Amino acid sequence: MRAGFPDFRLGSVLATSFTATLTERRGDAVERIPTPQRLVDWLAVSGLAVESCTTAQFDLARELRESIHAAATAAAVQEALPEAAVRVINDRSAQGRAAAVLTPDGKRRWRLSSPSSVEDALGVIAADAISIIAGERDGKLALCASPTCRATFFDTSQSRTRRWCDMNTCGNRQKKARFNAKKPDSAE
Ligand SMILES: [Zn+2]
């Protein structure tokens, strides 16, 4: 981890891990990829290592992130998908030329066309977003119950009743708030 930057919140779903690089969207927003280098760091830990990122590529990445957030939010509440967001997701998906490759031990990895192709990495993320928004994967898009967060997350729990984007942050905060509200001495 690089000192001075907020750390990443990595989940098991690529597209929603990406939208989680901006958290507390309805509160005091925390930008977790404030610089192109920080995006490079995030891509590396997400299995999409690139060597560098230009300002233009960085802009594409953040535009894609907000488009996924908008489309996934609409999908979670079963509203019409915002056209502009869909266009951005489709453009990024079409421009990526990453190939899925199989490792000797049977894992899937992404091979980018060039070591600095942020576009390829974004293509993989866009395709991941498409698969969850289109309902192709086993799980359900939902919005975090925290009023300051409202992040979209992909619920793969058996019962599909997960309430928070992240148990360690939003979920925990909610639990603590409830606990404090129950204590008699908190009534002032
Ligand atoms: Zn949350």
UniProtKB/TrEMBL annotation:
Residues 141-183 form the Zinc finger CGNR domain. SUPFAM superfamilies: Jann2411-like. InterPro entries: ABATE (IPR010852), ABATE_dom_sf (IPR023286), Znf_CGNR (IPR021005). This is Zinc finger CGNR domain-containing protein. Pfam families: ABATE, zf-CGNR. It comes from Amycolatopsis bullii.
